[in-house]
């Protein structure tokens, strides 16, 4: 009897580790070890175009180089600006579409419009960027042809800095807003209709009802969308690489494309690893600051 009880208590203690073990091993091998290895490489003078015998300890010189590189500093500024603009528009447009589809006027046709709106989510980012690149073509693109038909001049969407940045924002919004819309639509379904009826009886208009009832009740959903979209937009790579390739010049280079080109186009693995680790720290800082703001707001 004692042996059976001891075996049961032992299995109770070890069972969680048995179930969690494979997942933890998976995370360690595919996430933690690459981060540690990249951190190690960031202290080396390591160039892919040179023999392995030239690899040597480089100290903090890679970090000094990458933090004084104008392209890298410019990519940080543009990536942060891009993230703020895109996430703000994601929230505004996604919430507007969710409110529209949740309204009584769109009740019958909401399923059809939801299907249409979520189509961009089904495409890979590279495919999306390729489609938009064809549409933005200065000669044969459908967008410029429509502008000419309406009496406007053609626009060079990719070769001009401001137009290229505007194009990237449009493409990212087109692909990411449906996700925000679906989350907000699900959030709106959780708000009791009785609260709206009470507010209507008290004479509150729709704007007052939205800010007084809807927004406070779906605050957690809003925080979820903003946090996910911030992390996604900071890591944007494939759309930029396909649509503008960082051009014109380096004006649309994001942190991801700059790190990639430093490591693999210019073969400087040490500097690329240093940039990647700085990028990792930046994402952690932004995430922690945002989570702290959310907690502070929820306590208030």
From TrEMBL:
Transmembrane segments: 12-40, 76-100, 112-132, 166-188, 209-231, 274-294
Major location (coarse): membrane
Entry-linked InterPro entries: ABC_transporter_permease, MetI-like, MetI-like_sf
One Gene Ontology biological process: transmembrane transport
Gene3D superfamilies assigned to the protein according to its UniProt record, in alphabetical order: MetI-like (1.10.3720.10)
Domain of life: Bacteria
Membrane topology: Multi-pass membrane protein
SUPFAM superfamilies the record matches: MetI-like
CDD domains in UniProt: TM_PBP2
Protein known as: Bicyclomycin resistance protein
């Amino acid at each position: 009897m004692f042996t059976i009880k001891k075996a049961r208590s032992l299995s109770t203690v070890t069972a969680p580790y048995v179930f969690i073990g494979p997942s933890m091993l998976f995370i360690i091998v595919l996430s933690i070890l690459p981060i540690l290895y990249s951190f190690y490489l960031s202290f080396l003078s390591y160039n892919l175009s040179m023999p392995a015998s030239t690899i040597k300890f480089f100290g903090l010189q890679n970090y000094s180089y990458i933090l004084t590189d104008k392209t890298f500093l410019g990519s940080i500024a543009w990536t942060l600006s891009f993230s703020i603009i895109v996430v703000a528009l994601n929230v505004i447009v996604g919430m507007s579409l969710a409110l529209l589809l949740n309204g009584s006027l769109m009740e019958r046709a909401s399923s059809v419009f939801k299907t249409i709106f979520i189509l961009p989510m089904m495409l890979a980012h590279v495919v999306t960027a390729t489609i938009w690149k064809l549409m933005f073509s200065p000669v044969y693109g459908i967008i410029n042809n429509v502008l000419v038909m309406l009496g406007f001049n053609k626009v060079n969407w990719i070769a001009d800095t401001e137009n290229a940045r505007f194009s990237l924002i449009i493409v990212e919004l087109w692909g990411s807003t449906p996700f925000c819309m679906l989350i907000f639509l699900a959030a709106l379904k959780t708000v009791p209709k009785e609260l709206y009826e009470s507010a209507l009886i008290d004479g509150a208009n729709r704007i007052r009802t939205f800010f007084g009832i809807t927004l406070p009740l779906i605050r957690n959903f809003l925080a979820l969308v903003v946090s996910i979209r911030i992390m996604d937009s900071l890591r944007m790579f494939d759309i930029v690489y396909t649509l503008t390739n960082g051009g014109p010049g380096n004006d649309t280079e994001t942190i991801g494309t700059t790190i990639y080109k430093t490591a693999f186009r210019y073969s400087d693995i040490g500097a690329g690893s240093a940039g990647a680790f700085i990028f990792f720290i930046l994402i952690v800082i932004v995430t922690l600051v945002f989570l702290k703001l959310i907690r502070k707001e929820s306590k208030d």
